[in-house]
Amino acid sequence: MNTRRERKKMQAKKSISENALRLFLTKGFMNTTVAEIMEEADLGTGTFYNYFDSKEDVLKYCLGEKINEVRHTVEEIQKSSLEPSQKLSEILLTAGKNFEENSQLISMFMQFRRQASGARRESPHGSTFWEILVDIVREGQGKGVFRKDIPVGIIIEMFMGLLQSTMNSNMEMPFMDNLKQKLYLFLEGLGVKQ
């Protein structure tokens, strides 16, 4: 049960992260100071360190919150009665929409990640999505709708590569149209020939 004190702490952390993200997006990550973040959050500068170790920590937290939102949606898709290929489609389109809505945040995180050569560089979403995709691909293989002669890991790497290649695409095509075309090609090549 959340006590009043715990709710106030959660509210403070949310205020800090929301104001930090807004400043990062308008002023730039490097040009935003902790003092500015805390002024916008209407909290004392020292309070920042009760919740975060650094600006980078806030950035990771903000991205983690966005990833958690997507994770909940992806888990619902996984549990749904959709066919495996429909599940993969919905997951990719959900991830694509999230990227499109949060491209500045993701770009900022990736830039920081590239610069942090000595820092741990694990994926911000961990292995959660990989495990969900493994279950869906195995379900599809078990139902005979996905090829069994291709290892699950290869299928998932190619599937995840659809989003990555769309994120890096230079084509004069709207992001989601590009992603849908790649998804169609992927699923047509993945399907078992009847």
TrEMBL record:
InterPro entries: DNA-bd_HTH_TetR-type_CS, Homeodomain-like_sf, HTH-type_Tx_Regulator, HTH_TetR, Tet_transcr_reg_TetR-rel_C_sf
Domain HTH tetR-type: 10-70
DNA-binding region positions on the chain: 33-52
Record keywords: DNA-binding
Coiled coil: none
GO MF annotation list: DNA binding
PANTHER family named in the record: ACREF/ENVCD OPERON REPRESSOR-RELATED (PTHR43479), ACREF_ENVCD OPERON REPRESSOR-RELATED (PTHR43479:SF11)
Protein name (record): HTH-type transcriptional repressor Bm3R1
Organism (species): Desulfosporosinus acididurans
Organismal lineage: Bacteria, Bacillati, Bacillota, Clostridia, Eubacteriales
